[in-house]
Write a structure and sequence with these properties.
Elements lengths: L2 H104 L4 H78 L19 E8 L2 E4 L12 E6 L5 E11 L4 E6 L11 E3 L7
Antiparallel strand pairs: 1-2, 1-6, 2-5, 3-4, 3-6, 4-5
Helix pairs in contact: 1-2
């Protein structure tokens, strides 16, 4: 083989190595991008589910408060009707008392019976006046409760609108991610790669918090990235009172600085409730 042949073989070898390196770089870039995109899609889905659950809960609370408000309104109307009837009874009793007094002044016969009847009439008037005062107090209490319910209704409507705005923003973010995905697919020329499996990791040993909210098999906890918690961390869920009890695990799916959302696991996951403890370790050295 001549010198020219050796040079051609060497050049061909260098070109093959450069081509292989370029393929590896493209494959690595594609794999990392798909992993990051899939994690972001999962986080958006979780947050959307949480926002939709908040909207549904707010709708239900608004309907309940509206029902309570209508019930109190009916009770108020009933009390006002009873008060009007009491007013009529009181007026009639006063008229009877006045008529009896006039009759008593004209006639002095049977003084003892008249005196007893007068005492009875006075007692009846006092009783009706007391009943009227109780009706007025009940109406005042109902008015106060209705005012409180109106304020609660306004608060729930504000929360409902905020949740709707949050859901709209998340849907917009999802659409933006979809467009970015399409652009990246076009840029990378539609290369087909297989993303690596998600690896579950352990959080810091001192990570500890509580369950704040339950939605099916999803739970929100009181610690987040500020405490070292990250996506795919696995924490233990347990309860100390009224007796110590291990409830299962929670795999973190989404994290904010002060909160995290994860999926519950274990045979007692359906028994988990707000206030239960969450920690990276249950026993020292575990």
């Amino acid at each position: 083989m001549g010198v020219l042949g050796k040079i051609l073989v060497f050049v061909n070898l260098v070109f093959s190595l450069l081509t292989a390196g370029l393929i590896i770089v493209v494959f690595t870039t594609r794999t990392n991008w798909r992993d990051a995109y899939q994690k972001q899609v999962n986080n958006v889905g979780i947050i959307q589910a949480s926002a939709q659950a908040d909207v549904a809960a707010a709708d239900e609370r608004i309907r309940q408060k509206e029902g309570q408000y209508q019930a109190l309104d009916r009770e108020k109307k009933s009390a006002e009707t009873a008060r009007a009837k009491t007013d009529e009874d009181l007026k009639k009793a006063k008229d009877d008392l006045d008529a009896f007094i006039k009759t008593h002044e004209k006639s002095q016969t049977n003084i003892e019976v008249a005196t007893q009847e007068l005492a009875r009439r006075k007692s009846e008037v006092e009783s009706l006046q007391k009943l009227l005062g109780e009706r007025d107090k009940k109406i005042s209490d109902i008015d106060l409760q209705m005012a409180n319910l109106r304020e609660q209704k306004v608060n729930f409507e504000i929360q409902y609108k905020a949740a709707k705005e949050k859901l709209t923003a998340l849907m917009s973010q999802n659409e933006s991610l979809t467009r970015e995905n399409a652009q990246l697919r076009a840029t990378l020329g539609g290369l087909s790669t297989t993303p690596s499996a998600t690896t579950k990791t352990a959080p810091p040993e001192d990570a500890r918090g509580t369950v704040q909210r339950i939605d099916g098999d999803m739970a929100t906890i009181s610690i987040g990235s500020d405490a070292g918690v990250s996506v795919n961390n696995i924490l233990y869920v347990y309860r100390l009172r009224p007796q110590s009890e291990y409830l299962g695990t929670i795999t973190i799916l989404a994290v904010t600085p002060n909160q995290a959302v994860g999926r519950l696991g274990g045979p007692k996951r359906t028994q988990v409730k707000p206030g239960d403890d969450v920690a990276a370790q249950i026993l020292p050295g575990r």
